[in-house]
């Protein structure tokens, strides 16, 4: 299945999302799944346009 990403780029995006989630958890902030999915979509769209 082709998503239009190179694996390394997708790994970078996923790692970035995980890092953001971990930083929020460290700060004790609760993020709703809807907000998280929106942020993830924004990250993917923003990064894919630069690749």
Task: Walk me through the structure.
- The chain has 51 residues and is mainly alpha-helical.
- Helix content is 71%, strand content 0%.
- It has one domain.
- The chain is built from two helices and no strands.
- Helix 1 packs antiparallel against helix 2.
Largest sheet: number of strands, sense, barrel closure: none
Derived from helix and strand composition plus strand pairing, the structural class reads: mainly alpha
**Average pLDDT, to the nearest integer?**
71
Number of alpha- plus pi-helical segments: 2
First-last Cα distance: 18 Å
Radius of gyration, Cα only, in angstroms? 12 Å
Q: List the quaternary state of the chains.
A: single chain
Order of helices and strands: HH
Number of strands: 0
Describe this protein with a few key phrases.
51 residues, mainly alpha, 2 helices, 0% strand, flat
In short:
This protein is mostly helical. The chain has one domain.
């Amino acid at each position: 299945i082709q998503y239009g990403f190179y694996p390394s780029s997708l790994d970078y995006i996923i790692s970035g999302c995980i890092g953001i989630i971990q930083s929020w958890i460290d700060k004790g902030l609760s993020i709703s799944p809807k907000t998280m999915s929106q942020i993830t979509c924004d990250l993917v769209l923003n990064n894919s346009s630069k690749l």
